[in-house]
Design a protein that fits this description.
alpha/beta
């Protein structure tokens, strides 16, 4: 069984919005989160999808799904997230383990609610490579030169750009590997995790890199809305 965990715990602070989380802002007439969920609802390889959102927005999210995705509402569940991304991820895994059939080889595909241009190919590749390896991260090649600085003032070094990649989501893993890595990592380090795949690299497990897309943007700032509208207009991605 393969499951998806949609991380929808973000706020609208960087978007300049204080009362509505960014995932609920409208893109081409629909909330951003609905665009994203459509991709997972259409994926036959995903058994169930769990949306992790702020506790105060659980009922609102459920109503959005029932209104806009009635054809697959029984495949999509909503649960409250945690205070941090890692806490939310742990809650998502716990929800899946408590409510659905699973085994150690079950794959969990995690994805940002505000990346509406994820493709069926990305989801399928994540499932394939997470099944084969411990975990999988979606990446694209870095187009800018990256510099390293210990003090934040002077450049120490510049790594070879051919070895530098930008991380996106989905990020996916086999459930058994995740639970094993979580048990091995001390709590102080667990609390500092910023994404699903950091857990695996910190515990010495290899993370396969699946290819993403420059269109697979994360909508976090006002300019990103315009970029997303242009992607919809130019490519017809829905």
């Amino acid at each position: 069984m393969n499951y998806a965990a949609i991380m929808a715990g973000g706020s609208g602070s960087r978007m300049g919005v204080t009362d509505v989380p960014k995932q609920f802002l409208t893109l081409d007439g629909l909330p951003i989160i609905i665009h994203t969920l459509k991709k997972f609802a259409a994926c036959s390889e995903i058994e169930k999808t769990v949306v992790m959102c702020p506790k105060a927005w659980v009922d609102y999210t459920r109503k959005l799904i029932d209104t806009n995705l009635a054809f697959s509402a029984d495949k999509i569940y909503v649960a409250p997230g945690g205070a941090t991304r890692n806490d939310t991820l742990e809650k998502a895994v716990d929800y899946i383990c408590r409510n659905f059939t699973f085994d150690n080889d079950s794959v969990i595909v995690t994805h940002d609610a505000v990346r509406p241009f994820v493709t069926a190919q990305m989801i399928s590749d994540n499932i394939k490579y997470a099944s084969r390896f411990a975990a999988c991260n979606t990446v694209i090649e870095a187009t800018d030169t990256v510099v390293m600085s210990a003090d934040g003032e002077f450049i120490d070094s510049s790594p070879d750009r051919s070895t530098v990649f930008n991380c996106q989501t989905p990020q996916s893993f086999r459930l058994g590997e995740y639970l094993d890595s979580l048990e091995k990592l001390e709590k102080s380090k667990r609390d500092s995790l910023t994404d699903a795949c950091s857990l695996f690299t910190l515990t010495g497990k290899k993370v396969y890199m699946a290819r993403g897309s420059a269109d697979n943007i994360k909508i976090t700032r006002p300019a990103d809305i315009q970029t997303a509208e242009n992607i919809l207009k130019n490519t017809g991605k829905q």
